[in-house]
Design brief:
The chain has 138 residues and is mainly α. It has 2 domains: 5-66, no CATH class; 72-137, no CATH class. 64% of the residues lie in helices and 0% in strands. α1 (5-16) packs antiparallel against α2 and α5 (72-83) runs antiparallel to α6.
């Protein structure tokens, strides 16, 4: 399961309605974090868990334009990091990224290939053609 900015906003709304003082403090923190990432250009669907895992803390996450490019190398690094997690969903995520990365490497793409661009163009990893065909189309 991943946490999104929308999850933070919904949890904050719930916590604001709670009679417990600690819940209100938690709501304030969730709202501040959500506002911070929204101000940096992320959408409400942004995967907060992945961003924090990648950059270390909420305050280290760069603006969206700087963080936009995900490479095959990023996928392999994320897979390596999550593969040894005790969380089974993190292991599934790791295996999925590893398989996707190997799929693209097998199609002739390089480690520094912009995966976001390819996914925007073709919709899914399985739909991405071999690199030579992709370059011929561009």
């Amino acid at each position: 399961m991943t946490t999104t900015i929308m999850d933070w906003l919904e949890n904050a709304e719930y916590n604001l309605g709670s009679p417990y003082p600690n819940s209100k403090l938690m709501a304030l923190e969730q709202l501040q974090n959500a506002i911070l990432l929204l101000a940096k250009g992320y959408s409400v669907d942004a995967n907060v868990d992945e961003l924090i895992s990648r950059y270390g803390s909420i305050y280290s996450i760069p603006p969206r334009a700087e963080a936009d490019m995900t490479t095959i190398s990023d996928w392999l690094e994320n897979a390596q990091r999550h593969l040894h997690s005790p969380d089974s969903s993190a292991k599934v995520f790791a295996l999925e990224q590893y398989i996707f990365a190997n799929n693209l490497l097998g199609k002739g793409y390089h480690l520094d290939t912009n995966v976001d661009e390819l996914l925007t163009m073709y919709g899914s990893v399985d739909s991405i053609p071999p690199r030579k065909e992709h370059e011929a189309q561009c």
